[in-house]
Amino acid sequence: MLHPISVIRQRKRALILFTLTVLFFIFIDALISRVALSSFSNLEIKLEVEHEDRLTVYYRSGHRAHFSDKRTVFSEPLPTGKPTQASINLRDRIARNIRLDPGDTHGRVKIYGMRLTGHFGPPLQLDAEDIHERFIPNQAIENFTLHSDHVQFDIHGADPQLVLKDELVMQNRFMSLVLPLVFTLAFYLAISHFGRSSFPAFYDL
């Protein structure tokens, strides 16, 4: 029969193992989601502008981060009066949240859709309805309305912005579920066999 003190020690050790394992799973899952599954190589956006300008894209690692000029990419000058497919290199940076600046030239802009691609999951497709629901315009943008195949708005002020109100994450079941479980199992096996006898110096102490 086990001594009560031994039982308490075993329960305490099991609780510590369980807590460390859960914390490790949460850490690995968040790390994969926020780094690998939110890193994008390219943004393609179909839009139409009234006056020649270029699109500026700001990206950040999440809502708590700040948009910065250091995390900015630009499109080539956009032709006027016709739908144009602009391709912007995001350089495999973490772009969990983005901001679109459609230029300072006053006039009408139409956005038909966008596509983000990365190396760790299928492309993210946002159609006109997604853009209308998921982006918030600032005060420099008026008449932000959804049409059959595009979002239309007018620029009437300085520094117009469309800010994504949620976050961009690629869907990859293996990386978001299986891989964290595999790492967590390896971590559990490692710490469950850890003991003072594994380190002679500590054991002597």
How would you characterize the overall build of this protein?
The chain has 205 residues and is an alpha+beta fold. It is 32% helix and 33% strand. It has 4 helices and 11 strands, in the order αβββββββαββββαα. The strands form 2 sheets. Strands 1, 4, 6, 7, 9 and 10 form a 6-stranded antiparallel sheet that branches. A 5-stranded antiparallel sheet has the order 3-2-5-11-8.
- Name the helix and strand elements from N-terminus to C-terminus, one letter apiece: HEEEEEEEHEEEEHH
Q: Which class do the helix and strand fractions yield?
A: alpha+beta
User: Count of DSSP helices?
Assistant: 4
> Which bin fits the share of residues in helices?
25-40%
Distance between the termini: 29 Å
Number of strands: 11
The biggest beta sheet, please?
A: 6 strands, antiparallel
Q: What is the molecular shape?
A: elongated
Low-confidence stretches: 201-205
What percentage of the residues does DSSP assign to strands (E)? 25-35%
Rg, nearest Å? 25 Å
Mean pLDDT: 89
Give the helices and strands, then pairings.
Layout: H1 4-36, E1 39-49, E2 56-60, E3 72-74, E4 84-94, E5 97-101, E6 107-117, E7 124-127, H2 128-134, E8 135-137, E9 141-146, E10 151-155, E11 162-164, H3 173-192, H4 200-204
Antiparallel strand pairs: 1-4, 1-6, 2-3, 2-5, 5-11, 6-7, 6-10, 8-11, 9-10
